[in-house]
């Protein structure tokens, strides 16, 4: 795995300050080499290449985590561009150091690939501890922006069996439309896919969750990538003016 410059611009630690202000609050810090080894000791590829010594605790990391939990009692941890799959779908945040250790103490394919490649390329890895939001599948929306133009919005969970109600779809369209220009003005790339939390109350501004490359490695949601790796919009149920 390699990380082109455009890909690295989607990492939260490389976002412009103005974009960070539009995102979920987070406490972030760069992992020291021994902290990266501590987190990589449960990852299969990382262990095979780097053979980190197994330890039950990492004191320097413990201190940072305790500081974060004193800032916000419920957190959602993620690395530069990915999170642990084991946390998704649980419906519960990390509330204690033990919660965090239980989460990272499992092999995770994306985390493993990222840590292994980052160490090989002498990259700095950042841990972001985001303030937890208790949201359901309908609250996360994926925005497709190409050449500073919003092409469309899709539910993040394209495999959902329950359709979004028309009223909720209208609320999402209203929120996205009001947020669009402000968001595009502060994005680090002209073409990018933005995952946003859309609040149920339209008086609340959407918040950025993460950025993804505008490329076929990113899920197209309810749309599709064609054979030329271009983007094809198709409406499934309702045409909403964005």
Overview of the molecule:
The protein is an alpha+beta fold and 242 residues long. The chain folds into two domains: 25-131, no CATH class; 137-232. The chain is 32% helix and 19% strand. The chain has helices spanning 5-8, 17-21, 33-40, 44-50, 59-71, 97-104, 109-120, 166-185, and strands at residues 26-30, 75-78, 126-131, 140-146, 149-155, 192-197, 207-213, 224-225, 231-232. The protein has a four-stranded antiparallel sheet with strand order 5-4-6-7, with helices on one face. Helix 4 packs parallel to helix 7. The two termini are 36 Å apart. The model has no long low-confidence stretch (mean pLDDT 87).
Write out key terms for the chains shown.
single chain, 242 residues, four-stranded antiparallel β-sheet, three-stranded antiparallel β-sheet, alpha+beta
Would you kindly provide a brief summary of this structure?
With 242 residues, the protein is an alpha+beta fold.
Major beta-sheet overview? 4 strands, antiparallel
| First-to-last CA distance | 36 Å
SS-based class: alpha+beta
Count of DSSP strands: 9
Uncertain parts: none
The multimeric state of the shown protein is single chain
Shape: globular
Number of helices: 8
Number of domains: 2
Helix-strand pattern, N to C? HHEHHHEHHEEEHEEEE
Measured on Cα atoms, how large is the radius of gyration?
19 Å
Q: How are the SSEs ordered, and which strands pair?
A:
Layout (H helix, E strand, L loop, with lengths): L4 H4 L8 H5 L4 E5 L2 H8 L3 H7 L8 H13 L3 E4 L18 H8 L4 H12 L5 E6 L8 E7 L2 E7 L10 H20 L6 E6 L9 E7 L10 E2 L5 E2 L10
Antiparallel strand pairs: 1-3, 2-3, 4-5, 4-6, 6-7, 8-9
């Amino acid at each position: 795995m390699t990380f082109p410059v455009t890909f690295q611009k989607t990492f939260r630690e490389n976002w412009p300050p103005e974009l960070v202000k539009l995102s979920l609050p987070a406490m972030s810090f760069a992992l020291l080499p021994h902290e990266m080894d501590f987190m990589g000791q449960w990852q299969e590829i990382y262990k095979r290449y780097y053979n980190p010594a197994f330890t039950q605790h990492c004191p320097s990391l413990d201190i940072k985590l305790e500081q974060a939990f004193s800032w916000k009692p419920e957190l959602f941890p993620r690395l530069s561009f990915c999170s642990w799959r084991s946390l998704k779908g649980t419906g519960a945040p990390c509330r204690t150091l033990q919660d965090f250790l239980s989460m990272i103490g499992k092999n995770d394919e994306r985390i493993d690939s990222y840590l292994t490649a980052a160490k090989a390329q002498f990259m700095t890895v950042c841990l972001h501890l985001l303030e937890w939001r208790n949201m359901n599948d309908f609250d996360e929306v994926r925005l497709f922006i190409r050449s500073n133009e919003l092409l469309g919005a899709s539910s993040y969970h394209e495999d959902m069996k329950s359709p979004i109600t028309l009223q909720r779809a209208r609320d999402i369209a209203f929120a996205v439309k009001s947020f669009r220009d402000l968001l595009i003005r502060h994005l680090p790339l002209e073409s990018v896919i933005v995952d946003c939390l859309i609040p149920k109350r339209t008086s609340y501004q959407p918040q950025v969750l993460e950025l993804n490359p505008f490329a076929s490695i990113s899920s197209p949601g309810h749309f599709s990538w064609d054979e030329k790796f271009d983007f094809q919009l198709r409406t499934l149920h309702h045409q909403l003016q964005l």
